Structure formats: structure tokens, C-alpha cells
Please model this.
Amino acid sequence: MSARRPLIAGNWKMNGLRADARALADEIGTLRKNKSQDAFDLLICPPFSVIETVGHVLDSTGVFLGAQDCHTAEKGAHTGDVSAAMLKDAGCSHVILGHSERRTNHKETDELVKQKAIAAQDEGLTAIICVGETEAERENGKTLEVVTSQIKDSVPEGARADNTVIAYEPVWAIGTGKVATPNDVQNVHGDIRKTLAAKLGQETADGIRILYGGSMKPENAKELLALPDVDGGLIGGAALKAEDFWAIAQSCPSL
Model:
């Protein structure tokens, strides 16, 4: 049994006005506060516009607060961007970086993701670095090649277990209902850990949590979370329903 504490992270993406965000965060926070002894971490990453609202609701519940992106610079003439320092000041402990929707829609490169991760880590935030292959890459047998390359080029040399989380999100499974087989998931997660070991050393790699993020839901969470190199989930659609998000968290194996 892995000693890595499972992390269930909710990526709300571009969803939630203040009233909705407050209500959802309150449901999740109450569940967590009442079950504070459970051996997993919960994280909510809402849109920038409701981070403060959600943060106030989550205060003293034991649920961590995160964001969905940050800039590489601490401040400056970057209209529309938010720095890691601003996120830290708003109460965030984590930030998602390099999500496939950012890589695709905003043309983010591995190098940019790495620089964002460095900026986040320098501010004391935990960087959740996302990697994953497209359907075409999968069909061409390039899954491990693509993911290995992203890990090598997106993860900073100073990554540690206390400032870095990896999220494997096969692009073809995000929001589609498609899920990689448990065998495929374990193969990729195992390869990610080997790549991290080669880059950072085995001890560091053994401590870094690797999340699965391809349409994890209550129905498949237990099987996926039982895999030896799956240390939690980065949850999209199911994170917008408190009962589903909580059911996934309850599927985490005991340490």
C-alpha cells in the first residue's frame, strides 16, 4: 500500500457564479468537516472570479483552495493574467498548470508550463502539472512517448513531493465519458513515475502524487484509485455535484 496520501481535486473550469459557487463549496466543505478523519485531501479549483467567495466558505473545513492557471511573472503589464503571488494572497495553496485545454486553446508549450510551475513553486504553491495524449496520438501508439516528453520538459528540476503533483489526463477522455482501462492507466502512471525518477531521483519520484483525470466518476473511481501508481483524481464534471465529488473521495483506499 502506497504511503502517498490521496488527493481528490475538483477542477470547476469556467463554471459557477457566486451564489452557485458558494452553495457547492458549502456542501463539500460541510461533508469534509464532518469526516475530517478520512485519509485523503480535498481540493477545489474554482474560476478566478469566485476564488475569494469559495475561500471564505472553505475556511476551517479542511478543504484546500486552488486556481486553474497562473502567469510566469510576479506582476506587471499582463492584462487579463493572474500571478502566483496573487493566488497565494487570495488563499490558494495549489494551482493547475498545463491542462490540455490550456495547451490546446492557448497554445501553451512544455517550456511555458515549466516556467509557470517554477513561478508557482517560488510562491509556495503546489503546482499540479497536467500531461496527456490526444486520441490521434493514442491510436498511433505514441501515448508513452508524448507523456514522457511532457514530463521531461514541463516539470522543473526543483520539483519535490511537497510542491508538485502530476495529473495524467488523456485528452480523448476529458468530458467524453471515455475512460482508459485500468491496465492502461497503471501503465502510463508507472511510466510517469519512472520518468520522474530518472529526472528527479527515485526517492522524490516515490513521493510525488500522480492523479488520473479522464472522466473519473463514482462508478469507476474505486477501481482506478486502487491502482498502485494512482494517487487521486483531477475531477471535472463530477466535481460540480457535491454528492458525486464526495463519492469519489470516499472511494480512496485507506493508507
